[in-house]
Design brief:
About 5% of the residues are buried. With about 80 residues, this protein is mainly β. The N and C termini lie far apart (about 40 Å). The protein has a domain of about 50 residues. The protein has a two-stranded antiparallel sheet.
Length: about 80
């Protein structure tokens, strides 16, 4: 069984900055998906396509910080 390991990085967490929810200031997040629909006219396959976008939502209030979204998405939160 092929099980590639992630390269280990020595990170001093004192040199990092915690991300917090802009709405409730919680520091715990869950991975979520936002879905965008691409019309058949624009799709390379000629069929309507659903595009998943991975991001993080606050585990406490479900808010998504705009900084977690692609620039094109941050005005729709």
């Amino acid at each position: 069984m092929n099980n590639p390991q992630q390269p280990q990085m020595n990170i001093d967490f004192n040199q990092t900055t915690a991300e917090v929810c802009e709405k409730c200031e919680s520091d715990t997040f869950i991975e979520v998906l936002r879905i965008r629909k691409l019309s058949a006219l624009l799709s390379p396959t000629g069929e309507e396509t659903m595009i998943p976008i991975k991001t993080f939502a606050c585990a406490k209030c479900s808010h998504i910080n705009p900084a977690f979204l692609p620039k094109e998405e941050d005005d729709t939160v």
